[in-house]
């Protein structure tokens, strides 16, 4: 028998970093994402974010590739957001890039707390500074500017 636990901290953002997710309606979007994750037989440990980006702490089974998960999540939420354009009028799509960091189960609670504290966290640093810290902490050599550059 094989055993695994594939836990990812995923960050994805709106196209051109437009603040298109109003705090008033973010829980509706988060609930939709939670349902999507459940339907994929994945486990959502935490979701949180800001008007221009979302963080997920998600456990994927080996039958779900990260690339497929992200493509399908963005496609599905894009359609859902378009159907709710009265609540998300500035949403113009998701950026093509995303950041996915594997996590040890030992740090699951720490990462979950970090995601839950996004609102207070971003009172101190902006999204670019946050990404620089995530890249640095995870030895990602590429620049944050390449991550946020729209093709």
Task: Please name the defining characteristics of this protein.
single chain; 151 residues; alpha+beta; Alpha-Beta Plaits; four-stranded antiparallel β-sheet; 6 helices; globular
What is the topology?
Elements: E1 6-14, H1 26-39, E2 43-50, E3 53-60, H2 66-83, E4 94-102, H3 108-116, H4 118-121, H5 127-137, H6 144-148
Helix pairs in contact: 1-2
Question: Can you describe this structure?
Answer:
- The protein is an alpha+beta fold and 151 residues long.
- The chain has a single domain (6-148), classed as 2-Layer Sandwich (Alpha-Beta Plaits), CATH 3.30.70.1290.
- The chain is built from six helices and four strands; from the N terminus they run E-H-E-E-H-E-H-H-H-H.
- Strand 2 and strand 3 form a beta hairpin.
- Helix 1 crosses helix 2 (66-83).
- The longest helix has 18 residues, at 66-83.
- It is globular.
- The termini are far apart.
- The model has no long low-confidence stretch (mean pLDDT 93).
Question: Level of helix content?
Answer: 40-55%
CATH fold assignment: Alpha-Beta Plaits
Mean pLDDT: 93
CATH H-level superfamily: Transposase IS200-like
Pick out the low-confidence regions: none
CATH architecture label: 2-Layer Sandwich
Whole-number radius of gyration? 15 Å
Span between termini? 44 Å
CATH top level label: Alpha Beta
Order of helices and strands: EHEEHEHHHH
Number of helices, where a helix is a run of at least 4 consecutive DSSP H or I residues:
6
């Amino acid at each position: 028998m094989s055993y695994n636990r594939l836990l990812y901290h995923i960050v994805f953002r709106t196209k051109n970093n437009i603040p298109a997710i109003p705090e008033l309606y973010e829980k509706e979007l988060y609930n939709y994402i939670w349902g999507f994750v459940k339907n994929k037989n994945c486990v959502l440990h935490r979701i949180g974010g800001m008007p221009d980006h979302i963080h997920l702490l998600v456990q994927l089974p080996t039958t779900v590739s990260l690339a497929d998960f992200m493509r399908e999540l963005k496609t599905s939420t894009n359609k859902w957001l378009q159907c709710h354009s009265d609540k998300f009028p500035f949403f113009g799509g998701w950026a093509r890039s995303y950041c996915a960091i594997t996590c040890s189960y030992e740090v699951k609670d720490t990462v979950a707390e970090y995601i839950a504290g996004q609102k207070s966290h971003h009172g101190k640093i902006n999204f670019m500074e946050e990404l620089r810290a995530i890249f640095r902490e995870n030895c990602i050599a590429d620049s944050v500017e390449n991550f946020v550059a729209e093709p």
